[in-house]
Amino acid sequence: MSALWPQGWRAALPELCAREWDLLIVGGGITGAGILLEASRRGLKALLVEQRDFAWGTSSRSSKLVHGGLRYLAQGHLKLTREAVHEREALLRDAPGLVEPQGFAFADYGASKRKRRTMLAGLALYDLFAGRREAHWLPTTEFALRAPGTVREGLQGGVIYTDAKTDDARLVLRTLAEARRHGGQALNYVAARSLLNGAGRVNGAVLRDDVDGTLHQVRTRLVIDACGAWAGLLGQDGPRLRPLRGSHLVLPAWRLPLAQAISLMHPIDGRPVFAFPWEGATLVGTTDVDHRDGLAREAAITRAELDYLMLALTTQFPQCGLKEADILATYAGVRPVLDDGAAGAPSQAGREHAVSSRPGIVSVAGGKLTTFRAIALDTLRLAQAQLPGWGDGLSPCRIFDPVALPQAGRRMPGTMLRRLAGRHGMQAQALLDAAHEGELDTIPGTDTLWAELRWAARAEAVRHLDDLLLRRTRIGLLLRGGAEEHLARIRAICQPELGWDDARWEEEVCSYRQTWNNHYSLPPAARQAHA
Predict the structure, then answer these.
(1) In total, how many domains does the chain have?
(2) Are residues 180 and 229 in the same domain?
(3) Which domain range does residue 179 map to?
(4) 86 lies in a domain?
(5) How far is CA 152 from CA 110, 258, 263, in A?
């Protein structure tokens, strides 16, 4: 199969803008990608534009969990939890290799019997929603074997349960690829600068190509604002948001080796903090604070958040002797949480989504990574009233079409083939076929093949080096210094595929280093929290 975004694909922008569209979707995160997929597979002519890179915002900076949300169940959000559990199960079924089960262990250090019974009752309801049943309580000795390294003093046993994890940026790319197979179009680095109006309704937008600065008008029956935390920037009214920042740490797996996720209550405020194995490393998160820096700047962890997460780790794993110097990378994302007007703690804010409309435009905000399909269908249900002549029951169908495991020219583990099929879908075989000698080896310290870099550079709409290293692959998070020691080989593989001359390559490396140092490394001691 040919590349989904072949070199030179941007030359088609004027022709795309000259077409009449049913939908113009603004926002290239998981919400916009989900809407593009559901609309395209149901016969609508849909175009998506993203002013930065696909998944640049919240959808590459989440906690990487596909989960029902036990915390939301405890807060009484029964409908949200049931919906999220159903969507988690659908993703586990339809995206093997990309969405995978993740066991969790929660130690009990003398919680009241009433609190324990409440948690176990919640897990029983969790199982009921999922249509399966698991044992959730383990006595002290069995729990210690399941979760080695946890503090033994005062341990009364613990709770275990199963959720799921993913690579959030690859989930967005897989969703966009599926949408393109159904006729949808998606453009990164194309911003919607303003809306066009006629006959009392929105009927298009002015687009700006970030590459050359040219402006284009595009006509559409309906605009969908799926900008997430940036919702409302087009000037229309929409749900009021409370931007919340969640920050994370990435550690080498050997410094904090975990067979499954460990959930713990933070010693300061009792909030849940987790650590779990992800992409060959250990991921730790998350904070939950009001983001007061504004949305024009890229989010970054603060010193206070780093100290908060490190305290949770050193309290739970004192024998590891973890230090700041062990941290490979950090990242922070801004969650588009609906503002209910209450002045409660950020962690108490709901994760529901809301959809609203006015003539010619539908806005969607809030929600969770896990429920992106449900959000897309709710958005299209409201949009249907403004699309006369289009009728669809909008019943859920398979999220992704089944993909056969690719065939490698050399012996490869089945787990790797499954991973490639999950992350790259129908393109997995083409990726393997494009590999040069030695590129089916993994990049040391990661689960990523060198061949994935070549394929991303060739076929996945890479415009900047950080697109390649922070989103198409995640090696900028998984390797110390943002993969600095591998830049020479990355250049040899990717520069010819990207068509960059030497001056452009050096410019991109300089920009990438600046981005990584400012937003993915340890924060300066002087940086203060804005919570």
Answers:
(1) 3
(2) yes
(3) 9-58+169-240+350-386
(4) no
(5) 12, 16, 15
Q: Which of 263, 248, 270, 262 is nearest to 348 (CA)?
A: 270
| Helix or strand run (H / E) with residue 273 | strand 272-278
Identity at 401, one-letter amino acid code: D
- The phi-psi region of residue 204 (left if phi > 0; otherwise alpha if psi is between -120 and 50; otherwise beta) is left
Considering only CA atoms, give the Rg of the chain. Answer: 23
- 362 lies in the same domain as 430: no
- Is residue 378 helix, strand or coil? helix
Q: One-letter amino acid identity for 61? A: R
User: β-strand 215-225 against 20-26: which pairing, if any?
Assistant: parallel
CATH number at residue 145: 3.30.9.10
In the numeric block, the tokens 């599926």 are attached to 178
Structure token digits, residue 9: 């694909």
Q: What is the dihedral of CA 106, 107, 112, 114, to 10 degrees?
A: 30
For residue 456, how many C-alpha atoms fall within 13 Å in the half-sphere facing its CB? Answer: 30
Rounded to 5 degrees, what angle do the CA atoms 177, 180, 185 make? 120
Instruction: Average pLDDT across each block of 10 residues of the chain; the chain has 531 residues. List them in order.
Output: 60 88 97 98 97 95 88 72 91 97 89 77 84 84 83 86 96 97 95 93 94 94 90 66 91 92 88 93 92 85 96 91 96 84 53 85 90 96 95 92 90 94 97 96 96 97 97 98 98 97 98 97 62 38
Amino acid at 485: E
Q: DSSP labels for 334-402?
A: EEEEE--S----GGGS---EEEEEETTEEEEEE--GGGHHHHHHHHHHHHGGGSTT---------SS--
| Domain identity same for 233 and 276 | no
Residue 90 lies in a domain: no
- Burial per residue of 401-433, b for 16 or more beta-carbon CB atoms within 10 angstroms, e otherwise: eebebbebeeebeeebbbbbbbbbbbbbbbbbe
Judgement on whether residues 421 and 507 belong to the same structural domain of the protein: yes
- DSSP assignment letter at 291: -
Q: Which of 28, 46, 13 is nearest to 214 (CA)?
A: 13
